[in-house]
Amino acid sequence: MRLKMVSMPYLPEEILFNIFSRLPAKSVGKCRCLSKQWLDLLSTKQFIKSHLARANQENLILTTTKYTIRSVDTIKGYDRGTVSRDLKLLAVPGHWVEVLGSCDGLLLLKSNAGKLFMVNPITLEQAKIPKSPLAFNYHEGETIYGFGYDRVRDDYNVVTARFYYKLNEMDVLETLIDMYVYSAKRGFWEKIKNLSYDCMYPVFPCRAGAYVNEAYHWLGARRRDLDCNVIMVFDFAKEVFSEISPPSGVDIKDQLSFTLGVLGGCLCVIGDVNNSQGMDVWIMKEYGVADSWFKLSVDGYHLGDLFKPLCFVEEGEVVLVVKGPRLVVYNVKERTSRDLLVDGIPGKFVDGCTFIESLVLPPVTLCCHREEPASDKDKSENCWVTYPFGYVSGSAADFTDTYAYFMKTGFFGKAHYSYGNHMSWL
């Protein structure tokens, strides 16, 4: 019998747009490979934003003692254990050691050489961030980071602060703070001046803040009233600070007993004061509304146990990182816990955070760094560049032609070129 070819019915782009925007990011990636029409449609900025607006599935990212970063795609069916995958990221000097934050499906990663990258763990695209001025600051002290989105400028920002001690004119040791914010769109760091708040010195620097509602949050105090401890808020769009009052009756002066976190997309204050049985987690159900704080009690764990809530998995159940470190599923109603096993992790994992699947592209950046030349014959700057289909490396002179080609083809659109420490395509 002769087979008859049947043509697929035509679907308007509006319908395809609506259907595809509801699919997981990985499925969209596969659909992009099926036709040029779909590739063009599913790669537009409008589609990526629409897909992001519908994304709500929280996945886990775990860092391990073997210097790898692993993605746990889903924790449904966690009773049988979950499967992780190693992110095949561009090799960097040293090793990946820390996930500093997540925003819109992008991760802010740090290597043990102190280099920062924005990475999409689904598409594996990544962009390097130039060193902050704090990297050249010889003051010893703890450095904290924040990562977020500026909706007004359509820009991703990194904020960093360093805490250090210095004797004042009265020979009294003071805690000082330097703070900078990086704009991926503009490609440079800018110092935040006239700080009216002091952050609390971080006991756990990697857990010093929380990104919620397009703003970054730290525990802090007003400089003119150090006895008034608040949750200080940095708005990425306005580049100004404001404050949120902690839960009523909760004194957050003791930084050894409190930290901030995010649970279910809500800001939370985590502390073990007045609860010898375990931890209290206050969750701000409606952002900015003081009366919306409510408390969850978690028995058997304390802040010193590296306690960190990650996400809800079912009604009344929360995934926690606790001392070990290990993952635990805690049932709030029954006040019981059980280990969450993750297959495929080499060695032990160090820490964890959550991210959502998205197709958001990290800013494409050409980074040049000066190194000591191997000989007098080699005095060029060594460079490498990442972009959506890979990376190339060579001397700065080599990239002049590359840059001109990309500008001619319009591959990157608007661009910024500067000699010196770095060049960036925006």
Describe this entry's structure for a reader.
Residues 5-51 form the F-box domain. It holds the Pfam family FBA_1. This is F-box domain-containing protein. The protein has 426 residues and is mainly beta. Strand 9 (155-167) and strand 10 form a beta hairpin. It has a 5-stranded mixed sheet, with no helix packed on it. The chain has helices at 13-20, 25-32, 36-42, 45-54, 396-409; strands at 58-64, 69-72, 82-86, 96-103, 106-111, 116-119, 126-129, 142-150, 155-167, 173-183, 188-191, 197-199, 209-212, 215-222, 225-235, 240-244, 258-263, 266-271, 278-284, 293-299, 308-314, 317-322, 326-331, 336-339, 342-343, 349-356, 366-369, 382-387, 390-395, 415-416, 424-425. The protein has 3 domains: 13-50, no CATH class; 58-356, Kelch-type beta propeller (Neuraminidase, 6 Propeller), CATH 2.120.10.80; 366-425, no CATH class. The protein is 11% helix and 43% strand.
